[in-house]
From TrEMBL:
GO terms for cellular component: plasma membrane. Its EC number is 2.4.1.34. It comes from Forsythia ovata. The chain crosses the membrane at residues 316-335, 391-412, 432-459, 494-512. The keyword Transferase applies. One of its GO terms (molecular function) is 1,3-beta-D-glucan synthase activity. It holds the Pfam family FKS1_dom1. PANTHER family: CALLOSE SYNTHASE 12, LYST-INTERACTING PROTEIN LIP5 DOPAMINE RESPONSIVE PROTEIN DRG-1. Keywords: Cell membrane, Cell shape, Cell wall biogenesis/degradation, Glycosyltransferase, Membrane, Transferase, Transmembrane, Transmembrane helix. It catalyses: [(1->3)-beta-D-glucosyl](n) + UDP-alpha-D-glucose = [(1->3)-beta-D-glucosyl](n+1) + UDP + H(+). This is 1,3-beta-glucan synthase.
Length: 1230
């Protein structure tokens, strides 16, 4: 039986085909098939291969030179360094082919982005190889430094050996990528890959340096040699061990302490004992590979996940200590019923407040006991020194309780002896405080290091023994979680924020919660002979009642910190949003005021920076452009310019804007009529001003006519000054005038005397306007009548069935109004003929005026679009707030236009942008609904189609209008196959860049199956789906961990570029937002704090909020979390520790640190949260950006929402017991 599970590496992904169908029957394989760029010998003439950067990359990989050839195999001239490594270390040929393209694309893209361009375009710049080697092997270097071992990467450069260094660098990165590309589930254990690479790099060095085997005298051979040797001898034994451990979990029902997860396997390689026990070549008999309950074996490593409510205290013990110490001190001070500063003057109160140190040391003692209870299995199995540390912690914490008890008792003994608060008592108080200072010394040291983060980071990353010992004692020395502190500026912002939050919380708690309870508590405690209806637990006092009275107060006190955090987050988030210029354009009315500057904003933000700088070759022009950008970034002055019709930028802007509007039409969120109102028209008539969208010119001509009527006796300059104050009114008047002129000159035949009359009439008007004597020459009050006649003419021209005679009559009436009624000076027929405004012949000879001079264009001519636009400008009175009608369309336009005025990085050119892939995991979701599915009714008689028609009535009308216009129907499905598979096939065929990666299970008989990761595409040349890569797994990759992380893990080897974007099947992207992806990717080049980002968070919009009341609730919940919450967590707090979908990740950073998700079964239910934890613990930087957004669909039914919330709750519970949360609590704010 043949089984498939699917996941996409480039965009979406595909569902399974019918069972029993072998992959070769469905996907045909050809030697000519390639993924993105052909690299076989026969494709040398391919256009991509002609690019100098690609040729340089291929040449770099082909530079085998005099490297020792692999034995037992014939060497061919076309083989390159990847083939050389594949033969020497037993990698799969498809893996070699995959990584060859991977390297060529990366090196080529890096070469293209070099500024200035390299002198020798025929070879890869050495800096690219060294930088790539450093970034790809950074985690390996850190691992070697942590274990205090020497890396097996030798790149010492001398001028005479640069080429050999480049070759070595390529070999090292190629070796790492080949190991990573074939490691299957081992990609979740990055330090295991470091261990493998360390030894294989050592063997590579021996081969390069010409070592000979000491036993045979032959040239040195790697310990992993032969066909699929790496998979069979390295990957499979470790995979089998992982699988055996997962089997022990009983599908996640067994306690975590009973089996090793991915983290346990990985943390085994955080100790140098892996070199002693595992050895190289790998010793299969090592205790690492033992999984049975009998005999010595490697157990949990570094941490044991235990299900217990005590994790709430253990993982967040610092927060609990702070809250308990404050409420204890607050009750003591409030008991005096005075202001705190008055109460603290009392020596008795001061002495009583010293009891907080008892509570502090007691809670440390409790923490030590919990450490033993939770982590005892580590001591029993492997780490003896951990047991010593636990015992010492218990002894020390218990010792502090005793010490505080002794010194505190001495204070009261002296008080009893003296009978008063004598100087001797004060001296003993000072002794107690001296002891307390010693107790707090570690905390004070941590505080100093928190204020000086650079010092703290240095000490945590150093390998000096004294600091390693201190780290081991206070935090536990681990490979991750070192050097996490932010820069001084960010640390101070973080401290100030929490000073306000905690100050407000503690003030509120003291004055409004604790202090009002004191009087009633004293009254109850002093009350005697109180008889209760219920059972009396305490016969002598009312302590039980007091406890019940304080219980809700204490509960609220313990929980209301989150409320105060939310309040301050909202307040601070609103301020940050204000300074980020969010929401300045909230509707079409606001957009109307900014639209004049749109072209300049688009040019500045979306056009490549190099093009703007180099538009003029002189240095002054470059300096001016640079200052222009700085001016915009700092918000100084008005850096944006108005649009003008003659500017080239106007045409570029019109092209982008119209494409956006057309995508709205394809989405059916605007109608055909709204498209005409929103588009910038193509240049058809010679209009002197920019032709704004009609929606912005609504009512402007009518207002101008009213203004002209009011100022009929005013001079031209005053009237025109009043009109020109409104840019849209000015443009509407000029466009209306020019359009009417061109309209009349178009419908009146060119070689007629009527055409000459019309032309002369407008020339005369232009002359008087130029002389600024228009109001003296013409009756401005008559413009209203002319307006009516022009509108009547337009109505006749736009009628579906056009009557030329009616058009002629309308022209005659318009002629009379313009010639006789419009001018102030009456002219007879002779004067009109002399001026060229009347026919030279009499009416009886030539017929009526315009009778034979009118000719209308054909009905499909673009002429009528411009006539409709003119008619709209002259007649429209609609409010622009109603256009477009669809709420989503208005929101898309508003957000996009607003984002262009925000502070965003400038986009690079497409050739120099950072390359990225989009990864969409797919399981069994519906991709496309068939007509049958849409029309099928449920038990309530409601179909999906009816539901959509009801909820989105306006979009349905637009859809029907579009379908009728284009004459289209629903696409037919391939009924004989799985419909979802056919849907994906259609997507592959329609989208050339789409790739589908899936796991293929092939039966080999005798219950033996083989598993492959396969990448396919639709070949436009061959007109069929073809298989590109097929990489074998050591076993079923989806059986070891959570489904989604495993799905992503198998497909990520087929991704390309420096970044990868994670998008789920329930998400959407918009064309206008995609234009800003180049801007977003530029964020990777800039520091955010002291580090460059590794995850770029993106704003999300929930588009399913209108479906139901629960959906609206989910929408509000998500909006709160992904806007205000994420905004302040990323800046200024720098505590955003998760990545969401559709965030963009630094691909090479993540692929060397365990991948984009953590996949341990059951534990990592919320894989993205844990990936964020992992990113933070490994020194990553997660940011959040709100100038770009993606759409997201959320659950709309109550049952679906309940399931989702249950998943979130379960994931939160697993987080509490995880090592990630414990380590974050131990190392942050510490």
């Amino acid at each position: 039986m043949n089984r498939r599970r699917h996941c996409s590496a480039e965009c979406d992904s595909a569902p399974p085909p019918p069972l029993g169908q072998h992959v070769q029957d469905h996907f045909e394989v050809s030697d000519e098939v390639y993924n993105i760029i052909p690299l076989d010998k026969s494709s040398a003439d391919h256009p991509c291969r002609r690019l100098p950067d690609v040729q340089a990359s291929i040449a770099a990989l082909s530079a085998v030179g005099d490297l020792p050839r692999p034995p037992f195999l014939p060497w061919k001239p076309e083989y390159d360094l990847l083939d050389w490594l594949g033969f020497h270390f037993g990698f799969q040929s498809s893996n070699v082919k995959n990584q060859r393209e991977h390297l060529v694309l990366h090196l080529s893209n890096a070469q293209m982005r070099l500024v200035p361009p390299p002198d020798n375009i025929g070879s890869v710049d050495p800096s690219i190889i060294r930088h790539f080697c450093h970034s790809l092997l950074e985690n390996y270097y850190n691992w070697c430094s942590y274990l205090d071992i020497k890396p097996n990467v030798y790149l010492s450069v001398t001028d005479s050996a640069i080429s050999s260094v480049d070759q070595r660098g390529i070999l090292y990165v190629s070796l790492y990528l080949l190991i990573w590309g074939e490691s299957a589930n081992l990609r979740f254990v990055p330090e295991c890959i470091c261990y493998i690479f360390h030894h294989m790099a050592m063997e590579l060095n021996k081969i390069l340096e010409g070592y000979t085997d000491e036993y045979t005298g032959m040239p040195f051979l790697s310990s992993v040699y032969g066909e699929n040797a790496f998979l069979d001898e390295i990957v499979k034994p470790i995979y089998d061990t992982m699988k055996a451990e997962v089997d022990k979990s009983r599908n996640g029902t067994a306690p975590h302490s009973m089996w090793r997860n991915y983290d346990d396997i990985n943390e085994y390689f955080w100790s140098r004992r892996c070199f002693k026990e595992l050895k190289w070549p790998i010793d299969i008999g090592s205790t690492f590979f033992m999984t049975s309950s009998k005999g010595k074996k490697v157990g949990k490593t570094g941490f044991v996940e235990q299900r217990s409510f005590w994790n709430i205290f253990r993982s967040f013990h610092k927060l609990w200590i702070m809250l308990i110490l404050f409420i204890q001190a607050a009750v003591i001070v409030a008991w005096e019923e005075e202001y705190p500063w008055e109460a603290l003057k009392s020596v008795k109160v001061q002495v009583q407040c010293l009891t907080v140190f008892f509570s502090w040391s007691s809670m440390n003692f409790l923490k030590s006991l919990l450490d033993v209870a939770m982590q005892y299995s580590l001591v029993l199995r492997e780490i003896k020194w951990l047991g010593v540390k636990m015992i010492l912690k218990i002894v020390v914490s218990a010792g502090w309780i005793v010490v505080f008890g002794i010194f505190y008792g001495r204070i009261w003994d002296q008080r009893s002896s003296d009978g008063r608060w004598s100087p001797e008592v004060n001296r003993r108080m000072v002794n107690f405080l001296e002891v307390a200072l010693v107790f707090m010394a570690p905390e004070l040291l941590v505080l100093v290091l928190f204020i000086l983060p650079c010092v703290g980071n240095f000490l945590e990353n150093t390998n000096w023994r004294i600091f390693r010992l201190l780290s081991w004692w206070f935090q536990g020395r681990t490979f991750v979680g070192r050097g996490l502190k932010e820069g001084l500026t960010n640390s101070m912002k973080y401290i100030i924020f929490w000073i306000f939050v905690l100050g407000t919380k503690f003030s509120y708690s003291y004055f409004l919660q604790i202090k009002p309870m004191v009087e009633s508590t004293k009254t109850l405690l002093h009350a005697k002979k109180v008889h209760y209806v219920w059972h009396e637990f305490f016969k002598i006092s009312n302590q039980f009642v007091v406890g019940l009275l304080w219980l809700p107060i204490v509960c609220i006190y313990m929980m209301d910190l989150q409320i105060w955090f939310s309040i301050y987050s909202s307040f601070l988030g609103a301020i940050i949003g204000l300074f980020d210029r969010l929401g300045e354009i909230q509707n079409i009315q606001h957009l109307r005021f900014r639209f004049q500057y749109f072209a300049s904003a688009i040019q500045f933000n979306l056009m490549p920076g190099e093009q703007l700088l180099n538009a003029s070759g002189t240095y002054p022009s470059k300096l001016k452009a640079a200052l222009y950008r700085l001016k915009l970034r700092c918000g100084l002055g008005k850096p944006f310019k108005k649009l003008e019709s003659y500017q080239e930028d106007t045409y570029k802007f019109a092209m982008i804007w119209n494409e956006i509007i057309m995508t709205f039409r394809e989405e059916d969120i605007v109608s055909d009529r709204e498209v005409e109102l929103l588009k910038l028209p193509e240049s058809y008539w010679d209009i002197r001003v920019i032709q704004w969208p009609c929606v912005f010119l609504s009512n402007e001509v009518l207002l101008a006519l009213r203004c002209a009527k009011e100022l009929s006796d005013a001079p031209d300059k005053r009237l025109w000054s009043k009109i020109s104050k409104n840019e849209y009114m000015r443009c509407a008047v000029i466009e209306a005038y020019d359009s009417v002129k061109h309209l009349l000159l178009t419908i009146v035949k060119y070689d007629t005397q009527e055409h000459s009359i019309v032309k002369t009439f407008f020339q005369e008007i232009d002359q008087w306007v130029h002389l600024e004597k228009f109001t003296k020459r013409y009756k401005v009050t008559s413009l209203g009548k002319i307006h009516e006649q022009v509108v009547h003419l337009l109505n006749l021209v736009l009628k579906p069935t056009k009557d030329v005679d009616e058009v002629v009559n309308a022209l005659q009436v318009l002629y009379v109004a313009a010639i006789q009624d419009f001018t102030k000076e009456h002219r007879d027929i002779h004067q009109l003929r002399e001026a060229g405004l009347a026919p030279r012949t009499t009416v009886s000879r030539a017929g009526f005026l315009f009778e034979k001079a009118v000719q209308l264009p054909s009905p499909d001519d673009i002429f009528y679009q411009h006539v409709r636009r003119l008619h709209t400008i002259l007649t429209s009175k609609d409010s622009i707030l109603k256009i477009p009608e669809n709420h989503e369309a208005r929101r898309w336009i508003s957000f996009f236009s607003n984002s262009l005025f925000m502070n965003i990085p400038q986009a690079s050119s497409t050739g120099k942008m950072m390359a990225f892939s989009v990864l969409t995991p797919y399981y069994d979701e519906e991709v496309l609904y068939s007509e049958e599915q849409l029309k099928n009714v449920n038990e309530d008689g409601i179909s999906i189609l009816y539901y959509l028609q009801t909820i989105y009535a306006d979009e349905w009308r637009n859809f029907v209008e579009r379908m009728c216009w284009e004459g289209m129907l629903y696409g037919t499905q391939k009924a004989e196959k799985d419909p979802r598979g056919e849907d994906i096939s259609n997507l592959l065929e329609d989208n050339e860049a789409l790739r589908v990666a899936y796991i293929d299970e092939v039966s080999k008989g005798m219950a033996e199956n083989e598993y492959y990761s396969v990448l396919v595409k639709y070949d436009q040349k061959l007109q069929r789906e073809v298989e590109i890569y097929r990489i074998k797994f050591p076993g079923d990759p989806l059986k070891l961990g959570e489904g989604k992380p495993e799905n992503q893990n198998h497909a990520i080897i087929f991704t390309r570029g420096d970044a990868v974007q994670t998008i789920d099947m329930n998400q959407d992207h918009y064309f206008e937002e995609a234009l800003k992806m180049r801007n977003l990717l530029e964020e990777f080049k800039h520091n955010h704090g002291i580090r460059k980002p590794t995850v770029l968070g993106i704003r999300e919009h929930i588009f399913t909020g209108a479906v139901s009341a629960p959906a609206q609730f989910m929408c509000a919940q998500e909006t709160s979390f992904v806007t205000l919450g994420q905004r302040i967590m990323a800046n200024p707090l720098k505590i955003r520790m998760h990545y969401g979908h559709p965030d963009v990740l630094d691909r090479f950073w993540f692929l060397t640190r365990g991948g984009i998700s953590k996949g341990s079964r059951v534990l990592n239910i919320n894989e993205d949260i844990f990936a964020g934890f992992n990113c933070t613990l490994r020194g990553g930087n997660i940011t959040h950006h709100e100038y770009i957004q993606f759409g997201k669909g959320r659950d709309v039914g109550l049952n679906q929402i309940s399931v989702f919330e249950a998943k979130i709750a379960s994931g939160s519970g697993e987080q509490l017991l995880s090592r990630d949360v414990y380590r974050l609590d131990s190392r942050l704010d510490s």
